[in-house]
Amino acid sequence: MDVRPTRRSVSELALFGGSKWFDVPKSTSNLVGPDFDRFLDYSQSIFDAAGRPPGTVTARFEARLAAFHETGYCVAFCSGFWALATAIVALARPGRREVVIPSLTYRRMADVIAWTGLLPRFCEVDADTLAISAATAAPWICDDTALLLAVHPIVNCCDAQALADLADETHVPILFDGVESVYERCIDGQGRSRKVGAFGHAECFSLHASKLINGFEGGYVTTNDAALARRLVDLRNGSMVLPGAIDARLADMHAAMALANLDELDAQVARNRARYERYRVALAAIQGVRLLTFDESQPTSYKNIVVELTAEWPLTRSLTLEMLNAENILARAYYAPPLHSKPMAYPHIAAELPVTDQLSQRFMLLPCGEFVTLDDIDEVAKLLSFACAHADAVRACRASQEQKP
Ligand SMILES: *Cc1c(COP(=O)(O)O)cnc(C)c1O
After folding, report:
1. Structural domain count of the chain
2. Above 70 in pLDDT, residue 1?
3. Which residues form the active site (predicted)?
4. 94, 124, 288, 355 - which has most CB atoms within 10 Å?
């Protein structure tokens, strides 16, 4: 790659009028693409099937994914959103209204619950793991709880077994959102390592281009419950007699793309790992930036790069993000604002969550995925290092910028 000039002064930052460090944006989206011929091979079978009935490749995809997650069944959907909505409809206890979810999570999680006519009941996450836990969920489980919706965080997993046990003890159904934990494994009640996908009553996943398995768009639900799988299929296929039914099937072209990416998943994870290791080395010397490390005692995808800006970091997170974004480094705040503090147009239950409020200020995602090279990672680290060393000047420039009309 080209040798880049080093910045000599803060005025060379793009935020203050300098040229952008990256011509092409470096995002936090995965955007993994398979070998094109592999994609075409799977697509070819759409045309080869006798009579070309829709759904042939999707059926293959479902069988592959059930095997991959070591579950009895997989039901594919046109998106993760509709996979979630349908699974909530299928699992919610009749006559109860509340769904317990973490507030520090995916921005549309409350929307999907509202769509099903239920009420989000927000809970805290564990401050060390950023994950919903049995301890943070338990206080909110009551007579009116229809469902516990446990979302895995984006680095490492929640304690899936403890949450499943809580659901068991309280007789509440539990649905996991494993979108960010497709590749991960957790330890079950017998001390065995089991793939995420096999815990609780069902688990939901997404095939959006930003996720680990890219199907352009799409989603799926895994479960070991045959009756539930049948009901999910009926709801998904838009059965006219079922309330809550929609047509949310996954088109074969998406399944072909997802299958091709699935074939290459281990290679992708190896590349993710190399990027993660590079971040680890590059960020180690920067005071105030703490990389969240992956638990390597179980398989993990190494996909997302999340850092905490600690008390030693000299700039606010919002100024840090503005500075990075100006350089075309599309770093983002980690799940901010938390859901309980967002204005919401639909019925919900107000919550006071001081731990979540605190945590929501501190973390950010750095670029990851297929369009981020190891050299790019060094450049991101250099910029953070530069900003840290010149923090007073950065703040001063910012202040004078704000004073201009
Ligand atoms: C992206 C995402 C979803 C929704 O998936 P779509 O396919 O984009 O609808 C659900 N949960 C989590 C945690 C996500 O990150």
Report:
1. 2
2. no
3. 211 (proton acceptor)
4. 124
